[in-house]
Amino acid sequence: MEGDPRRVILFPLPFQGHMSPMIQLANILHSRGFAISVIHHEYNSPDPCKYPHLSFHLIPGGLSQYQADKSDPLRLFQLLNIDCIGPIRDCLGKLLSTHDDVACIITDANMSSSQAIAEDIGIPRIVLRTSSACSFLTFATLPLLREKGFYSHDLDSRREDPVPELPPLKVKDIQAMQFRSLDITLMVLSNIIEGAKTASGLIFNTFHDLEEPNLANLGEHFRLPTFLIGPFHKFFSAASSSLLAQDRNSVSWLDTQETGCVLYVSFGSGATMNEKSAMEVAWGLANSEQPFLWVVRPGLVQGSEWLEWLPDEFEEVISQRGCIVKWAPQQEVLSHPAVGGFWTHSGWNSTLESICEGVPMICSSFSGDQHVNSRYVNDAWRLGIKLECGFEREEIESVIRMIMLDRDQGQEIRERALCWKEKIDVSFKTDGFSSQPLNALSDLISSIKSSSA
Ligand code: UDP
Fold first, then answer.
1. Are 267 and 344 a contacting pair, CB within 8 Å?
2. What CATH number is associated with residue 322?
3. 427-453 pLDDT per residue, tens
4. Name one GO molecular function term (predicted).
5. What DSSP line would sit under 218-243, residue for residue?
6. Domain limits at 284?
7. Are residues 206 and 307 in the same domain?
8. What share of the chain is helix, strand, coil (3-state, %, to 5)?
9. Whose CA is nearest to atom 24 of ligand 1?
10. Does the beta carbon of 347 lie inside 6 Å of ligand 1?
């Protein structure tokens, strides 16, 4: 890049699955010669010491520990969008008065209120959507589906039917995306979508080959420069932006296991389940007789600190065959030779990390985009199996056996997962994988600056 570096101001949301990709993007753009400022909350703050090359700016307010109840993500996004408007505006004002090199801000798609702030201040906003393009397309299509009656009770008996507007989704996937009330769900999602439509650019942490069938349709909804520059973690690991301490005993334990025989189980940073479901997970794992590494994050099981609900009998049955930790170095775990399968909640970062390591998935989606990601993994990409009955030990046991051992359908899924890994590795080595869209994004940011200089 010629001349002084231009500055980009990024504002991540304070949740693991949103923070990691934004910090990764900050590092990617820094490696492209941009100066980077990161505005952040105190709650789930990134550690500035880990990134001395980026400058960090703390804003007051945001979420308290008490407010950050993860059982209602829509309420969290609403709260953040309202509470942060003043502090972000003040912080941006200060940054703009002290730096004359600012090209644009990049904010999370879910931070839709930042679009109005950007317009008021007169600075372009580029949106980072931290999940898949297919899930964003789904969000954009939901109002139409509502009009067409996909949320009507008459369809309750046709939950398995396909949604012709959005293959391969089924009616039940669309219906599962409703949180609290349909009106509130659609209002929050519509703010996110409309905010993105009026932005200056749209970035996805995903890649062209995976999302290709949806891109034309996506372009109809979002008529703005769009950049698929993922998977970010291929450029910059997510490990440094982990908000919880990663237990390295999980890796030592994997070192003692045979190649490809361990099922890694993690439902991400936000999902919660009741004790009954957790018990089904535990007994499904035990009955499958496969070795497993299970991340039970404190707070995963509602009303419990950690493992109090697990009966002693469980430990006796699994003996040395299972390892349970509070949080793991996931990327390293997925790339470990002992790991042969990943039972995931289908969060987008987890899905991408699994695809890049060639690990077939078992999918248990909990909320929002996870329902879309898991359907795509099962039906479109055929890189895993979606649990269709919720948490039910018999289904769990048989699906684990299918993914880990089956020589027919399971073998096909395992081979397909390895093919994707090889394809990704080869394209990453040969043409830098996302270098073309990344160059285009760099050009866009540089041109914004030059036109406003
Ligand atoms: N992760 C981790 N250790 C764990 C579980 C998850 O480091 O024990 C990381 C994982 O690698 C991923 C992120 O946490 O980058 C989870 O993001 P995702 O989008 O999958 O789900 P979310 O937490 O947002 O629901």
1. yes
2. 3.40.50.2000
3. 888 766 678 999 999 999 999 864 444
4. quercetin 7-O-glucosyltransferase activity
5. HHHH--S-EEE---GGGTS-SGGG-S
6. 245-428
7. no
8. 50, 15, 35
9. 17
10. yes
